[in-house]
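Researcher: We're teaching a course module on how sequence relates to structure. For the next exercise, students receive a sequence and then see the predicted structure as tokens, so they can try to spot secondary structure elements on their own. Here is the exercise chain.
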Amino acid sequence: MFRLSFFIILFFLSISIGHPQSKYSIEANLGIISPFNSSAGLSGSGQFNYSLNDMTQLFFNASYGAWDKYNVFYEYQNYSSENPNPGPIKTFSADDHSLASINLGSRFKLHENTIINLYFDAQIGLAFFSFNKYNLNEFTNPETGQIDLIPDLSSPIKVNETLLSFGVGPVFEREINTLLSLYLSVKLNTMLNAGDTNFISKRGTYFLVSAGFKHML
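Model: And here is the predicted structure for the students to work with:
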């Protein structure tokens, strides 16, 4: 393990020495992942960048995120003045979500000044999606006579999917010095056919807001 770490450090040092105006940089961040119709969760990622020129970069990143429930909504079919319509009722049909992904992408500089730089990211990759899915049982509410939907927690169905994913969004960067920058990233991502639903759906779509640093090598 020590030898491996030594050779990795030596490799990055050789890149830095051989390229005074380095085209290479690394990033690390932590963030909040917010899937549609779901509870929010946490995420983290690492990224390696290669600059083609002053305006365009190519990158490779790996990320991991986790969150809990995926919610579904339904309405009572029969109601009266004694039991008025309460509006959409929320329950959940899945929980314990985890998402690991690897992506390739491009970053384009849109604006530069002495305070903040604005970029636009576009990426494509593979998403390894895992969660517990539950069947919804009908339960008659004894107080109202209405039918409620209750997840059957006694029989979770483990789902593992490998999906194609896309992501786009702006990146706001603040340069600290020639080697270090801080940044804020906001991305809209979607996984195709997630959870055996529509081609592009709320089930597989999420916002990712993250903050981190970039270090020139």
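Model: If you want an answer key for the exercise: The chain is about 10% helix and 60% strand. Residues 2-18 form the longest helix (17 residues).
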